[in-house]
Design brief:
It is built from eight helices and 15 strands. It is an alpha+beta fold. It has a single domain, classed as Double-stranded beta-helix, CATH 3.60.130.10. The strands form four sheets. The chain has a seven-stranded mixed β-sheet. A hairpin with a 6-residue loop joins strand 9 and strand 10. The protein binds fe (ii) ion.
């Protein structure tokens, strides 16, 4: 039986008692859904290490997973499981996506017409200190506490999103101070076979994004934001995104997760943005990622 307790943070819940080898009972599924609704991030810890098939089975109980194999054009353990890894193949390229550097604040698949509702990350292989932390920020509370001047600008607004935007690059730079030479060396290791879905495309979503189950409204802006309907000046749009992010990303809304091997973290990716912090250990780090479609 799964039990949860709040983490000592503004969001996040620690769950024990998951059996990777068995389907979730109705009670356990309800417990996880409630913890997600209440705490947005659920850390399953203490179970034996799971495999890709067991993770995929868990994801299917939560909803309809994205087909990672079709979306990214790389070999996957199962169709649903995307490798996020800094480990290198025989050609000297990373075997997975987004392998080794810091990542900016984002919501998964915001750059597609169908966004993700939840994502799962599993520490398949990480250094003893986790390698790089992942932070999560509560965008429901961010929305509910918007100051009037931002609320008025964002109310009813349609946002534009892309995986390949100048804003993305600028927001990355604003949030991380990565050494340029190290970043360049890291980019040389990127896997050239990976085709990132949505590259070169712009999609639209409401900036006030409701969770499909709870109806709670999140502030849906991130480093994938690239503009707004009705705001033609790109600098004005960027400034609005930056102001919204600056309001949202504060310690009172944030939890930073230090990975332990075997952890499975399930999180609401409508109502949180997340990022990878600057790695503190360059050792082999492979996470499995699965995402559930917004219905
Ligand atoms: Fe992500």
């Amino acid at each position: 039986m799964i039990r949860t307790e709040p983490l000592d943070a503004p969001l996040g819940s620690l769950a024990s008692g998951w059996d990777p080898g068995a389907p979730l009972s109705d009670d356990d599924l309800a417990t996880l859904r409630q913890a997600l609704a209440d705490r947005l991030v659920v850390v399953l810890r203490g179970q034996r290490e799971c495999d890709a098939e067991e993770l995929a089975a868990l994801a299917h109980q939560l909803g309809e997973p994205f087909p990672a194999d079709e979306l990214y054009n790389i070999p996957t353990e199962t169709p649903e499981v995307l490798a996020v890894s800094n480990e290198l193949n025989d050609d000297g390229h990373e075997i997975g996506t987004a392998g080794s550097g810091p990542l900016p604040w984002h919501t998964d698949y915001a750059f597609l017409d169908t966004i993700a509702r939840e994502s799962l990350l599993n520490a398949q292989r990480v250094p003893s200190d986790g390698g790089a932390d992942t932070s999560f920020c509560d965008m429901y509370t961010a929305y509910e506490t918007l100051p009037d001047h931002l609320s008025k600008k964002l109310a009813g607004r349609t946002g534009r999103y892309t995986i390949t935007s100048e804003n993305n690059t600028r927001l990355r730079q604003n949030h991380h101070d990565e050494d340029p030479a190290a970043a360049a060396a890291r980019r040389m290791q990127a896997n050239p076979d990976i085709i990132y879905p949505g590259s070169g495309e712009v999609v639209e979503h409401p900036v006030e994004m409701p969770h499909p189950d709870t109806g709670r409204v999140a502030l849906y802006v991130s480093s994938f934001s690239c503009g707004f309907d009705g705001i033609d000046d790109p600098e004005e749009a960027f400034a609005l995104t930056q102001a919204a992010m600056d309001h949202a990303i504060v310690p009172e809304h944030t939890y930073t997760h230090r990975w332990r091997q075997g952890d499975v973290v399930i999180f609401d990716t409508v109502g949180t943005v997340h990022r990878r912090e600057m790695p503190h250990n360059p050792g082999p780090r492979s996470l499995r990622q699965l995402s559930i479609k917004y219905p």
